[in-house]
Design brief:
The structure is a homotetramer.
Chain A: H1 2-11, E1 21-26, H2 30-41, E2 45-50, H3 58-66, E3 70-72, H4 79-90, E4 99-102, H5 106-114, E5 124-127, H6 130-141, E6 149-151, H7 156-178, E7 187-191, H8 195-206, E8 210-214, H9 218-226, E9 230-231, H10 234-237, E10 243-246, H11 256-261, E11 267-270, E12 289-294, E13 297-301, E14 307-311, H12 317-321, H13 326-345, E15 355-357, H14 360-370, H15 383-389
Parallel strand pairs in A: 1-2, 1-4, 2-3, 4-5, 5-6, 6-15, 7-8, 7-10, 8-9, 10-11, 11-14
Antiparallel strand pairs in A: 12-13, 13-14
Protein name (chains A, B, C, D): Adenosylhomocysteinase 2 isoform X2
Family (chains A, B, C, D): Belongs to the adenosylhomocysteinase family.
Organism (chains A, B, C, D): Austrofundulus limnaeus
């Protein structure tokens, strides 16, 4: 996570989070540890819980605790443990959070439910996940959002770097660790051509797969066409596909009806955001046999001997069966840190009880902090050019609606 | 332009532009003729001038006139002719425009200057060019924008299809028609990694060029890095480059200082938006000899015998030395037609004296009209899925800030 | 043609073709002029005719003549002229050729037919074309080959550089200059996946076309599969193809039966070696109308209004409608020069009355002469490594059967 | 291994290896088991040993034995065990081999050393490895080769499918399982641009790495140039490389001198044929510390804190840290089976005491057997076309020197 290191170094002696009390609820891993330590180094006091009952790395939690951070998390929490840990982050007598860093919205939900008065003191929520953002928008529509919220999930750097490249870099890996598939010449259906689907397609194409895309959105469909991918319905290709990858964020994209038509040996997996993409319930029937052949690899057998390979139990393939590159985590962690700094230091009135995207200048700063890893050298605008373009020579360089 | 044909057909007997008086100022080519005829078929009366003194195809203008459209344009107009033609579009006693379709802002400018009263009657302006949009924002900032304006230039379909693929499809062609360059292994510097630069890089990479990118914006720079392109300053590579392509929209990107360091035989061209990208004035000096070796190909000779190849006089390479695919023109023309329909039919109050992006639903519709050319088949959301995603099953499918 | 220049320079004062009399029959263009001048600079006396009645560049022929080379060729020769010119190259009383440089085998054929006694004096034939090689093998099988022949066509550099990259670099250009096709998302059938087909596929894939391959050879078919191309029969895809490109070297690959099933607007062209690939005779019938819409572009109209676009009259697209990069011509010309030098200087007995591939060391030398254009730096083997690999540290580096 | 299944099925009731006694020495894995069983099904009696003391899958050996095959092999043999096992394959009183299937040449070597008389009875040797082929050529040069040998290693299918795609498919996997590297934008030096290097480069380029190639052979170097890769010496890039991959088949390609100049965090691995490519001995010194951070991942630490990551102890990365796709193994196993059949059934005199490449027709047959996995459909030549091309309509389709 060198970008966070540069961030700390750039801060010099200054402590932009001086005195801030940050309550966090995220995965607790080596990488988030660097984030938490960075927040502390910038002046914050942190209390932290896990956003998932399985993902905590106990050694990391222990090391953070030893370093004086209050961490309430362990691998394999029960449901009750989970909420108890979250409660411990916010319910300390002598400690009221100024800032919320949430991943999925559970911490935010808990405060709404149990300690709504805390919001009086809270300067804002930083949320990174699709689910958490969805919940914030529901609150906002219901006029119940009572502090500013920063939507990190839809920042340029999150969407165009974390999401796209995380998938591009992990799809091959996830498939290779679970199967001995060769990609060259395989017919692959990718359901959904958003950033996740685009990443999967790019990687698979690089290894010689033949890719077909399904889409509901005509704009994304046209992008697929122009990039040389056939846009079809799943029904059209279902009998020919060697691999089917769900990348939609939708539910019931691959159903029993599809499974019944797949060819022998077809591999099915999910790179989308939830485990609803593949309708597994319809496969849990008498006539189909399930065989666990290795961790994360199930063979589903039809009465006629047909065998379909289901990976990662239909859950996110790259979380279970691949490593997520540090670079990708670094982009998001840096964005989260900057969003907290912005909310903490923003002058009164800049942010209202609404959901905001990160100011473009910060998105640009996050990108900037990651360029040294590529030994990349930016060109600086001359004064004359800045005048010509009518922008500040140090950015922001693009209007807010720019799509990249 | 099959999409415009489908648009007409989809309209059925209805005439969504019934009675609309459209004053237009665009290039006058076979493709815009289809647009104008489409507007007429949908009920509009049109008066048209050219936005460029050179680009009018006289036969097209004649054919339109014969079809009853009032066209004021010919190839090779003088400056005075140019403004006279524009004047004729708006200054008819018995004819006051309801809608303006502009490309570059000259028509809009003329009305502001000469007939500001006409704006009382005008329902809106549709503008497609970077320059025209820039002028509209200047008006808006100065509180002088007195009708709604639709920014077609920044619509998804314009940026992500017209701009990107037009450049991707024409850069190789432009270079091949002017030189006998082989792309494999050539070291190419692409200045700017926006949609234009991305398109050029994609095409050149496909043919085996080795590409280096210069950027001022760290986000675009990081995109280049992740896509496997070295981000450098022009200065670093200037002595090694075989080809230098300017794609910035900026001015003085390639200067005399750069030219003096280029190697013998280096090819220089411009794919950006204006002829300011290459600082040609500094090359018009005594000690440098200019040789016109073919149309659009100049050799500039240094006293020591070094020769630099300048294409298209530093103006847009693909306009002069390539064909623009109909598909690309079709995307923009369809968007323009829909923008006019929207402005004409919008209920009072939907649009104020401001600059708007095309409603997403229309962007999606433009994409939809182009899918049949690819024999692409969209998947339709089930009711259950639409509820799950909390969107209308016929779109719009994405939030406005979605970047594609 | 910088490689030929380096070749001359490397020769220093030596004249490896000193006294050699070379009779040549090739296209006469600016590039072959450099070859002929190089042969002269290396000591040869040359007499030259054209191998094609149309391809002579008259200015080049004049310039060569002015430089003292005996050139018998002009653009637009009649059949009689053609053979008269060839005759003049060999039938001089005071001049008997030592070496033959042929392209297509007509010069060789003429000597066999008219002056077989000349072969007593001839040290060898260098032949570059598929057709010429075929004719030599026919002679050899009939035991009529009476001098050594060097098969330049099948040298590594010819096949793996000239053929592959010439096609890769020119297919897009040829299509763009004749049509305004956009490649993104187009469905293209490439008939034949040899070096020509591989080059076409690589270029088209780089621009986002969706490619299907037909093959008769299972090895080439499997290569296409592994590279992510669907291998189908032309019949399977004929109704869906946007573009069909013949690259087989075979005859009647695209027939009337195929044409009848093509969709409206389908584009058909030939990149293979002869004009037999497309069975045009079956299209010259009453019910089909032919329209010449531009040079090299014919529209063939079916009674129901269907229109098929035929490019370059079914002849080689890239010869008619594209430029061939100098680099590619340089590779072949350098190979020809080296083959002549080898035959002229080979010790008695090294070559018999047989057909030979270029010695690997010369293929490597040709490649070496072209590396400076890419600023490429070879690594030199250490003595220890050469011993380990059991090869000479200056090459040849590979066994003769190595495929590259 | 579906191709072997099709081979068995195609044989119908015939047993082309009826009565053949095959002594084999290969890796003993699930895939070679299918080969051995296929040989048995085609009529052969087999006795088998392992060619490597570590690679035997004991369960496979047991299953083969249970099926009646004489297998002498287990995981973790001692040096003495190794030779004893080999001895058991050939030294049976009542059993003299007709055919040798060798991988590395140890079995062949043992017979030469201990039982030279057996060669009187042996119809030929089939050898697949680089090392084994090298040893056969040494024998041949010394006039000691006393039976025909079939060089499977240099068959088209081995080189152009097994070697190329095995590396292309496994390099990413090998790096991902051992590190959490992200490939996008990484600067990678690939030493050697043969089939192994070509495969690695293709895969890495697909994921956005920036690749530099080192080469000793100018032809391969020129191929790299044309494919858009910079050809440099390792020395030029050593300070900038993020990853260095050795693919040469040579020794001491990466030396201590290089290691001393690498940047902090540089990853070094070997995809070439032996563990001599990286000069590890020079790294086993006092001042460098070695840290085993995970299986197959060593960190080497310099006194100044610099850390270089060495994968797989410098041995073949893909053997240790990746899975080899069945498809690739299938190609080679099928080739081996056909080579044995050919040698066993060849009429007296077809093969002499020499080393042969597989007859092209068999190479084509191997390819053919693998096409069904891709649902690929070959085009059949018409009689007229076969006459035109002067080849048999069922192949072979190319001359022996064709390079693919």
């Amino acid at each position: 996570m060198p970008a966070l290191m540069i961030l700390r170094k750039n801060a010099g002696g200054e402590k932009p989070l001086n005195g801030a009390k940050v309550a966090g609820c995220t995965h607790i891993t080596a990488q988030t540890a660097v984030l938490i330590e960075t927040l502390a180094a910038l002046g914050a006091q942190c209390r932290w819980a896990a956003c998932n009952i399985f993902s905590t790395q106990n050694a990391v939690a222990a090391a953070l605790a030893e370093g004086g951070i209050s961490v309430f998390a362990w691998k394999g929490e029960s449901e009750d443990d989970f909420w108890w840990c979250i409660d411990r982050c916010v319910a300390a007598d002598s400690w009221q959070p100024d800032l919320i860093l949430d991943d999925g919205g559970d911490l935010t939900h808990w405060i709404y439910k149990k300690y709504p008065n805390l919001f009086k003191n809270i300067k804002g929520i930083v949320e990174e996940s699709v689910t958490g953002i969805y919940r914030l928008y529901q609150l906002s529509k219901a006029n119940k959002l009572c502090v500013p919220a920063m939507n990190v999930n839809d920042s340029v750097t999150k969407q165009k770097f974390d999401t796209l490249y995380c998938c591009k870099e992990s799809i091959l890996d996830g498939l290779k660790r679970t199967t001995d598939i060769m990609f060259g010449g395989k017919q692959v259906v990718v359901c959904g051509y958003g950033e996740v689907g685009k990443g999967c397609c790019a990687a698979l194409k690089g290894l010689g797969a033949i890719i077909y895309v399904t889409e509901v959105d005509p704009i994304c469909a046209l992008q697929a066409c122009m990039n040389g991918l056939r846009v079809i319905t799943l029904h059209e290709m279902i009998k020919h596909a060697d691999i089917i990858i769900s990348c939609t964020g939708n539910k019931s994209v691959i159903t029993r009806e599809h499974f019944d038509q797949m060819k022998n040996g077809c591999i099915v997996c999910n790179m989308g955001h939830s485990n609803t993409e593949i309708d597994l319930s319809s496969l849990r029937t008498e006539e189909l046999k399930w065989q666990r052949v290795r961790p994360h690899v199930d063979h589903i057998l039809w009465p006629d001997g047909k065998r379909v390979v289901l990976l990662a139990e239909g859950r996110l393939l790259n979380l279970s069966c691949s490593t997520v590159p540090s670079f990708v985590l670094s982009v998001t962690a840096t964005t989260q840190a900057l969003a907290l700094i912005e909310l903490y230091n923003a002058p009164q009135g800049r942010y209202k009880q609404d959901i905001y995207l990160l100011p473009k200048k910060m998105d640009e700063y996050v990108a900037n902090l990651h360029l040294p890893m590529f030994d990349a050298h930016l060109t600086e605008l001359t004064d004359e050019q800045a005048v010509y373009l009518n922008i500040n020579k140090h950015g922001p360089f693009k209007p807010n609606y720019y799509r990249y």
